[in-house]
């Protein structure tokens, strides 16, 4: 059974159960599909709000997209070409995949971003609003609460991010930390994951960067800063208190 037939079957089943019209039942079924989560092996945010690395990883997994959507990458790209998707917006493409082909919302976003990158409609790291993002992550041998404090505690933060000014938006210990960056338009979104009692992982997305060059620069910057953070938290070593490059960001 194709995914379209499966969608129609679910819509009719809901109509029989609720007495709703076809249009209303279809809208509710599609809404449920959009909220559907992905398997643990691929669970992450939609690529538009995260890293292009997520899309690259998915592109390497033909079996995953085939299993979850009923088609492989090249099949979806050919289908989108036939629909003249290069002339459509990101929102139009994703909505078409959901509404016409019953693709779950997360996968519709994934396919749309991958297609846009494949056809040169979007540069790697570029979001739908035209800005760019940079990502970095690090596993550090400390409890997750201590890793969170490295961002949330201003004195501790100064030891590995000298000169950086963060205007905190929200901080939910020990899970997430969001802040505006150095009084600029960009901002950081940080997530923390426990990997045991004495090990945790930090992942950062630096959003709203003005271009690909700025994204590449900040990606390198965060990788270097995370190396300093690891030395500081694991060994109490402040590898470099002076960071002129960081002061200007």
From TrEMBL:
Coiled-coil features, chain-numbered ranges: none
Gene3D superfamilies: 3.30.530.20
Compositionally skewed regions (Basic residues) per UniProt: 1-12
Domain of life: Bacteria
InterPro entries: DUF4287, START-like_dom_sf
Region (Disordered): 1-66
Protein name in UniProt: DUF4287 domain-containing protein
Source organism: Phytoactinopolyspora halophila
Lineage: Bacteria, Bacillati, Actinomycetota, Actinomycetes, Jiangellales
